[in-house]
Design a protein that fits this description.
The chain is an alpha+beta fold. It has two domains: 60 residues; 98 residues, Alpha-Beta Plaits (2-Layer Sandwich), CATH 3.30.70.2830. 60% of the residues lie in helices and 20% in strands. It is built from five helices and four strands. Helix 3 packs across helix 4.
């Protein structure tokens, strides 16, 4: 009896080779894309790094140049010329102070505020660092009340403020000598301040 071998297709293993190839191709594409992106980023960052290095080099060159110029300027400064410039600036400041400070205005203030029992011995104006002007007035009076009345009158007029007696004593003539000091505003400034206060 002849034997016939039959193939049972249901027991043969089935391989999905096409699906595996597709997955491998996709994975390779992802790897290639990530690699390409990384290479592009390296290229871009390298370009930026080179640009920044160029800028740093330029700035260092400028810094060296400026230092050399500063050193040359320091060596070229003439001490005598500098002293002359400082002296001229002092003279200009004195002229400005004289223009701001009007002896006529100050003496008019004193004339209208000075009690009969008080007389002025000396007046000395000075400009502070912040630009305010202070005036020191040495007065001779028969009584302390006369000095107080003079201070009150000065402050009522508005040109002087914060007037204080820095020193008081009885001199050899039996008069009270008081060194007064206060902030002085020129007549124009005082009028402007009064106008501002009146407008509020």
């Amino acid at each position: 009896m002849a034997r016939t071998d039959r193939i049972n297709l249901s027991t043969r293993p089935f391989y999905n080779e096409r699906g595996v190839l597709v997955v491998l191709a996709l994975a390779a594409a992802v790897v290639l894309a990530v690699t390409a992106y990384n290479l592009w980023q390296v290229y871009v960052l390298s370009g930026r790094h080179a640009e920044l290095q160029g800028r740093i080099s330029q700035e260092e060159t400028k810094t060296r140049d400026l230092r050399q110029r500063a050193a040359a300027l320091r060596q070229s400064i003439d001490a005598r010329q500098l002293e002359a410039t400082v002296s001229a600036a002092r003279e200009a400041n004195l002229l400005i102070e004289r223009r701001v400070f009007s002896w006529t205005d100050v003496l008019n203030q004193f004339e209208t505020t000075l009690p009969a029992s008080v007389r002025i011995s000396s007046v000395r104006p000075r400009v502070e660092g912040d630009g305010t002007m202070r005036v020191q007035v040495v007065v001779l009076a028969r009584t302390v009340e006369g000095v107080d009345a003079f201070i009150e009158n000065l402050e009522k007029r508005g040109a002087f403020s914060g007037v204080l007696s820095r020193e008081e004593f009885v001199n050899e003539d039996g008069l009270i000598q008081a060194a007064l000091e206060g902030r002085y505003r020129p007549a124009g400034d005082a009028a402007a301040a009064e106008a501002r206060e009146g407008g509020r």
